[in-house]
Automatic annotation (TrEMBL):
GO biological process: one example: transcription antitermination
Any GO molecular function: RNA binding
Keyword set, alphabetical order: Cytoplasm, RNA-binding, Transcription, Transcription antitermination, Transcription regulation, Transcription termination
Keyword Ribonucleoprotein among record annotations: no
Origin species: Daejeonella rubra
One Pfam family hit: KH_NusA_2nd
Name of the protein in its database record: Transcription termination/antitermination protein NusA
Similarity annotation: Belongs to the NusA family.
Keyword match Transcription regulation: yes
Amino acid sequence: MSNINLIDSFQEFKDFKNIDRPTVISVLEEVFRSMLRKRYGTDENCDVIVNPDNGDLEIWRTRTVMEDGFSEDDDLEIELAEAKAIDADLEVGDDYIEQITLESFGRRAILAARQTLVSKILELEKDEIFKKYKDRVGEIVTGEVYQVWKKETLVLDDEGNELLLPKTEQIPADYFKKGDSVRAIIEKVEMLNGNPKIIISRTAPEFLQRLFEMEVPEIFDGLITIKKIVREPGERAKVAVESYDDRIDPVGACVGMKGSRIHGIVRELKNENIDVINFTNNISLYIQRALSPAKITSIKLDEEEKRAAVYLKPDQVSLAIGRGGHNIKLAGKLTGYEIDVYREAHEDDEDVDIEEFSDEIEGWIIDEFKRVGLDTAKSILALNAEELVKRTDLEETTVKDVIEILKSEFE
């Protein structure tokens, strides 16, 4: 029999990448049964057979042979005279079985059915992609860059599914062009106007965690646990790890011999500095480790306010704060404490605490200097105006006014 257009559709969709063959067969059968219901009013007495290998279709309709004049429903019954004209051996009560050809439905009905088939298959495909990726949120996916726009990058996975990598989810140093391979984590999956929208991310802490799981077998096997990860994407990250096996050094295992394990992760993250530290329930020690590479002299904790006053030697203050304030900010996120940095006072220092100038300098300005570890006059005067503007959120004119006030103290 002819397979006008409709069965060609089966050839297009029978190997659909995300839909199994039985599902496609059931969709085809439902489309044909819908055509039968429109034509005959019912499909209860019809058998639809679709060959799963080549898409060949057979439709058989069964009607009961009735005595002449006793047929009440032509869709379910056929009179004896009409049946005998086709097959002389038929008797009252027999089943009259006839094959229905696609051509008999008419070209318009076939084209409408084909359109329905295409629509249903595409809908199924979208649902399958949504379900597949919804179950994979938090996993790493590798794809190929297909198109780069100003606010996002379109990535295709191995099966040609579209993944979106927004600019906000890219590491600042990321630069992609068409054809590049890119790794990211599946961040969010949602249905938008019937279409699955899959958002991937390279800035999420979970991306760094999955990279560690790939590079460090002990983490994958559960011998080492990642307690917490905090990141400033492309700049710095801090990873707190713990091992329940005393024989395993969690930090050493994560870093690897001569940094062999962590180097691959650093390269993937565009040279992001990664500090791996031992987790501990001792808050003072935890904060001390979190502020690495700075060496702390002493710590005062306020557990109710979740604040920590950290005292360091003058040459350690800038290390504790880090470039752009990233080190102290991440240490605070990792430990859950607001960390205030203070220079350790020496008896022979002819220095003055910045609080002494509260009658000349407004309180919020003093707080801003203290926030970045500049709590004495000399610590501020040790830096030029440009450096002070970079470190604080203060205007240049404000900084210059403060410098003049402090200078006059020592003059």
